[in-house]
Amino acid sequence: MKIIEDGRAPNPRRVRIFLAEKGIEVAFEQIDIMKREHLTPDFAALNPFQRTPVLVLDDGTAIAESIAICRYFEEIEPTPPLFGTSARERAIIEMWNRRMELNLFFAVAQCFRHLHPAMAELEVPQVPAWGEANRDHAIKALEILDRQLANNPYVAGEGYSVADITALVAIDFMKPARIEMPARLAHVARWHSEVAARPSAKA
User: Which member of 64, 111, 113, 152 lies 3.0 to 4.6 Å from 47 by CB, making a disulfide possible if both were Cys?
Assistant: First the structure.
């Protein structure tokens, strides 16, 4: 079993944090996206969308998409539970993880991909207006998150979950995307300070 990734990218970091929280060790194989090593026929055979990470099982099965990989490891190592234990918890965590992924993480990624000069040769065409529009979307998502964290220690409620991992990686990705965190979001700042201090955040 191994995970193929570019360790500098945010989606692989989500998986690494998840594995660190679980205490699971997996072999990693690095590829360099900036050198277009993800655009080879061999890698496309594993993931036709040519994105990292990809989990390759011992029987050759390839599992792409960060959350799908995390769900695989949740099934084989349920403790600590990061997707919830009851139907209610699982639904709420799923809801907040999707909110963070689709409204915050995606917006930050689009800002980075369409505005950062380093992405000019990989994101063709870059559409600066789309990047700028997503800057506003990211801030709106952060405002919603701030309201959620006003009454909850973690993104999905009382316990740390995969939703916190998605939100942490998205917010940390704001720096290379050149999105400023509004100073007024005190609850996000409190939460970020706490989850960033967890040992897994350094994975």
Answer: 64
Give domain 2-76's CATH number out of 3.30.160.40, 3.40.30.10, 3.40.910.10, 3.30.200.20.
3.40.30.10
Judged against a pLDDT cut of 90, whether residue 61 lies above it is answered with yes
Question: What's the mean pLDDT when you consider all of the chain?
Answer: 97
DSSP calls for the chain:
-EEEE-TTSHHHHHHHHHHHHHT---EEEE--GGGTGGGSHHHHHH-TT--S-EEE-TTS-EEESHHHHHHHHHHH--SS-SS-SSHHHHHHHHHHHHHIIIIIIHHHHHHHHHH-GGGTTTSSS--HHHHHHHHHHHHHHHHHHHHHHTS-SBTTBSS--HHHHHHHHHHHTHHHHT-PPPTT-HHHHHHHHHHHTSGGGG-
Whether the pLDDT of residue 122 is over 90: the answer is no
* pLDDT confidence of residue 121: 87
